[in-house]
Amino acid sequence: MRERDEALEQYRATSEVLRVISNSPTNLQPVFDTIVKFAPRLCGANHCVLYRFDGELLHLVAHHNLPGELLEMLRRLYPMRPSRMHAAGRAIMSAAVVEIADTLSDPEYQQKVAVLGGWRSMVAAPVLRNAIPIGIIVIQRAEAGKFPEGQIALLKTFADQAAIAIENVRLFDEVQTRTRELARSVEELRALGEVTQAVNSTVDLETVLTTIAVKAAQLSSTEAGAIYVFDDAKQEFRLRATYGLDDAVVAQLKRSHLGLRRPLAISDAVKRRAPIQIPNLQDDPSAAVDIIVRAGFRALLVVPLLSVDRIVGALVVRRKQPGEFPKSIIELLQTFAGQSVLAIQNARLFESVEARTRELTASLEDLRTTQDRLVQTQKLASLGQLTAGIAHEIKNPLNFVNNFSALSSELTDELNNVLIKERLSPEGREEVDELTRLLKENLEKVAQHGKRADSIVKSMLLHSRESSGERRSADINALVQESLNLAYHGARAEKADFSITLKHELDPNAGALNLYPQEMIRALLNLVSNGFYAANKRKIEAGDEAFEPVVSAATRNLGKTVEIRIRDNGTGIPPEVREKMFNPFFTTKPTGEGTGLGLSMTHDIIVKQHGARIDVETKLGEFTEVIITLPRDRLATSGMEPE
User: Fold this and answer.
1) For residues 170 and 166, what is the distance between their CA atoms, to the nearest angstrom?
2) Which carries the bigger pLDDT value, residue 202 or residue 139?
């Protein structure tokens, strides 16, 4: 019965230890505490101590029922090297179970420990892994004498369980370490993939280099990253991409002249063609490092960016903790450095191709401009010939019609005077008066339309003739002001009661442009005159005497362009009219008030002759604003002749 109870208790203790082992895959202390609790009770001992052995020293890790004074002494003594003064040391050195039947009769054993502990006998069982001791379990008893073989065997079982627990934790740690390594490898591969994608998907050097700097800093567990590009002309490294640096620090680094001849880590790395690290920046004599030391950084790693035959730049990561960088980090950043070299070379090649493309595009644009000018000149020449022919063929008969209609009108008056002398019946007199009146009215209409035809011919000649004057520098504000004055006085000369409010807002920085002044004034006159017409038309149609017609002109300096705005508060332009307003011979004015050539001529002067842009903003019943945008560069450098 007693043997059965002991066996049952041993089974429960073993099961409890195994349960704790399974529940503590990463923590050995609960396992050790459980072993030292059950081992002395089941092995007929009073005390128990468990040590870990690291191959050199013994470490006290768990104990049960030790007197306080002894425990204090053990904590002072351990860790310590194994020796024959203790049972644990002998078990470590022999890798076998050691039993001391009577500590008082053992000359090698340290008696003070036995006296403080109050024990006379003990057994030490080594915890083995592959026959190599990694720990020791020691049980002590107050009585002298040997321990039964069953109790020693049970102690060895507890030692085996401790070995299992230690091995489980070791394996778990190895798996965790390997998992972290694999996760890091995956992260590094993903980062390299992102960098490769950035290199392949864009030629924007800043984007690519910033991506590399960010990933390099993140994967190297540093707080900041930067990429410098080498300027061959100045023989200096220029900061092109950063991560984790304050704007003030970046500004200071950009102002620093990092040349090859200065004693800097970046120049040394390039000269050696190998990475260089500074574990503690406070020990580095370089003055340039002061900037980042003041920013709180204590260590840096520089990886040179090199091609076969030239210096490309450098990749730098900075850390706020001093210390050396692991070899794996250096190798990783060397991979990033290769990507950076590829990105910079690709960007430089693209910039070269893009610059050449811009040159070819500019040349093509010049050729197209020249071609358009030639075509326009040929069209105008053809139109000039046509209008000259029209003038030759139509002018004389048109003069004949105009002259003889006026003469016939006068003859009608004379005929009336002659018929007055004749004796006619009242009915005959009335009929003659009616006929002569109708005849005179018809002749006046013939004269009116003859003059209209003559005006159209003159407008066609004016529209088709080549530009007058020569290209020269002219103050744009002066041209606008002169156009306003000419248009106003011309309108007053035509209608004495003409009234309108003129406003102008001229930018004093508009400056002078190289253009055809007389042609530009012609174009602006047309626009201002149309504004006069639209504003007065709105007043007439509204029948509102309080309405004030206003036309305003404004200029504005936009840097590479100059803007001119002519605005009226007139009737506005319907969409269907706006689409055709610059077409030749298109007009919405009543017959006799417009030829439809003014805006067409204005468009040709502004767009074709001066290479500018003309836009129209309008709202029915409220306003119309014409916006002219004149490019400075083209006007200043173009050799285009007048069209």
Assistant:
1) 6
2) 139
